[in-house]
Structure formats: C-alpha cells, structure tokens
Amino acid sequence: xxxxxxxxxxxxxxxxxxxxxxxxxxxxxxTYTESPKALAAARDQQIDVAFLDEKxxxxxxxxxxxxxxxxxxNINLILVTKVRAAAYDxxxxxxxxxxxLPLSKKDVEKEMRELRNPPGQSxxxxxxxxxxxxxxxxxxGVPVAFKYTKTKEILAILINNKGVQTTNGEIIACLWExxxxxxxxxxxxxxxxxxxxxxxxxxxxxxxxxxxxxxxAIAMDKIDCDLYEWLDKKKKSRYQYLGDYMNQFSWxxxxxxxxxxxxxxLDEA
Amino acid sequence: MDEERQARxxxxxxxxxxxxEISEDAREDYYRIMDTExxxxxxxxxxxxQILRVYSMLFCEDLGAEAGxxxxxxxxxxxxxxxxxxxxxxxxxxxxxxxxHFPIIDDDNYDRFAALVISDLKAGPLHEAMMEQGDMLLxxxxxxxSMSEEERQNQKVRTAVL
Lengths: 269, 162
Known about the structure:
The complex is a heterodimer.
Chain A: E1 2-6, H1 10-23, E2 28-32, H2 35-44, E3 49-53, H3 61-71, E4 76-81, H4 86-92, E5 97-100, H5 105-113, E6 127-130, E7 136-139, E8 142-143, H6 149-160, E9 166-167, H7 168-176, H8 182-202, E10 209-212, E11 215-218, E12 223-225, H9 226-233, H10 253-268
Helix pairs in contact in A: 2-3, 6-8, 7-8
Chain B: H1 2-8, H2 11-18, H3 24-34, E1 37-40, E2 43-46, H4 47-59, H5 73-79, E3 83-85, H6 96-99, H7 110-123, H8 125-132, E4 137-139, H9 149-153, E5 158-160
Antiparallel strand pairs in B: 1-2, 3-4, 4-5
C-alpha cells in the first residue's frame, strides 16, 4: 500500500507518519509539506491513500485531492482539517474520510480501517478478458467496442504478455510482422494507442493499462482473465484450456505449445 | 500555403480537441486536420509536425531544442507545467494543463496538448482574452513543481505570442 501524507505543519506530519508506520509497517509512506512536490511525486507513483491538509498553500488540500483523483481514480482521500465544516467539502470531493486536528491515533487507524476503496481488496473487477477460444474483452459484461479492430489486438498482446511492459516495437512486430514501412506503422500505432486510450477513458477503465514512455503493460490485478485464473488455480479454475487460445490472431499460435505443455503436465499430475 | 496552414490550425482544431474525449466526430476532425499534408518552406510536412515545430520554438528553447526541431513526448511533458493563463498559479483557472484536464502527458496525447496550446493561441479563448482583456499565455521556468515556494514566486515569466 502506498500512502501520501501532505501536511503543512511538520510536527503534525511526523505524528501522522509515526502512527501509520506503526500500524502499517509494510506500507510505503511519502511525506511532503508542500503540495506541488507531492503532486509531482504522485505522477510517478501509484497512490492508494492520501492524507491532505486542507490549508496547504499554493494548492490547497481539496484542489490537490481533485488533481490526485485525476491521476489515481481509486485513491482514498482523507482530509485533515481544524474545522468540522470542512467535512462537507470533503464529502463533495467523495473523500474516504476526514480527520480533525489535533490528530488522534485512534481516529487515524479508524479511517484506515474503513477506506472507501480498500487497496487490493476489490472483489468485483469490471473487466473480463476471454482468451480461450476467440479473444474478447468485456467491461461490465458487455463486449468493448473499439474504433479499430487492431486496437483490440493490442490489448490481446498485452494480456498475452502477462503484465510485462511491451514496447511499441514489439507491438508493431506482432501486429504487422515484417509487413510494410515501419514509419507508417508507427504513425498507425499512434492512432491505435489513442483509440485504446479514448475507449478506456470513456469507460473509466484507464487503470487497466500501465503506461511507460514507449511501452505499455496490462495491470493483471485489475482484470479477470480465464488464462490468468487457469495458470493460477490449474485444475481448480473455472476455466480450462482445451487447445484454443486467441484464435483470431496468428501470433497466438506460438503460445499454443507452451499452453499445451502446461495442460499435459496437469493431466499427468 | 502558409495561409492554408494558418486556416487549418484554427478554431475547428481547437474545438475538436476540446470535445475529443466525448465526441467521435471531434476525434475524426482532430485526426483529419493533424494528418493533413501541407507544404511549408518548400517541403512537405503535416499539420501535426508543423504544430510540434511551433511548440518547440515557443516553449522548448531552454531544453536545448534546436531551431526547426519537432517537440516529442519528452519535450511536451517537460514543458506543460510551465504554461499559465494570466497569472502563474496552480488553480485550474490559471494552470493551463489543468484547465484543459491533461493530468498525464505521454506518447498518446502530447501532440494533442501541443495542438491545443497552439490553436488556442491562434483562434481559441486565449486569443480572444489576449485581444479583449490582455490576458496572456505566460511561460514560467521549467519544473515548477520541484521548486520551493520562494523560487516559484521569484521565477522569470515571459509571455508567449504567435
């Protein structure tokens, strides 16, 4: 769990950090007294919980909360304030909670126990990827429609790569093999990536893709997938590999051998 | 040809970007305009490349960008934070990237951000505000989020004019 604490007063920040460290020794806790620096850090790091001082200079706690939510839609915001009336603003921001100063250890722990979006504990995943048979991707039970068919293939490539960052070059190689001018393909890929981004943004599913400069990966923990479940639970999985895998993509044929081997090993076990 | 380029990087492009996330028609308009080939200074280029050249010239000079170079994702991402409307503040009214909701700038949208700024300067509300109220697009120093509060207050700010 990654926790961001942005509190103007150093003594309060220290007190809060000590409480969090005791209660969550495995958590990564980032502390700041200035909101711009905290925002810069939040661009590079997943944030699960943010404690925000309402009275921060330059970017106040409420505004910082809005900016953080743009970056991390499932973030739990906890406003830290001196005045009870601020709880109303915290509610408008759909915060997870609100803490009154002076802080009490009990209240901090209570807010952490009752987070609005407990990290890593989401029972319901909105996206299901079907890889056995023909590849299809569903959001809330409905097949996702992309503008270009090749956009869906990009998603298939990322899912096939199981969370590994896949470079634009690797995606181009899969989509077109060695067919055509790489410069033109690069421009086409740019349109496909934008189509992917647009579609996921419209469905509020941006967090299923982890992007880096020039590469992308699927966030495996954000989707349900028959392949992943089968690889994890083997014979106990609801899904079983029966020799069909992403049938519509030629590059997927290369994966069959690997999946066949796993399947034979399971049968013999 | 210069007139043709000028006409295309205008209000239609600005509107297409503003509605990009909610309208298929806007996206079509955006891609069509950005991929349009034009001839500038005797060579064939696209509106996208031309915009990225202008963006580089206006905002990337102190990143070491050479004259006539095209801004890439790194350059646009590194300079987006330094753009303000009228006043160098981080609220959504003055902080350009937040006003137009670009929390992340990467390979997938850097050209759209650059096109937004340039078309806004040329034919959007920024252009109107410049004419009517004197509100200018301000260019602060690089990496404002990493500065101390005092450094930010004392940073050098210039105006951007097309």
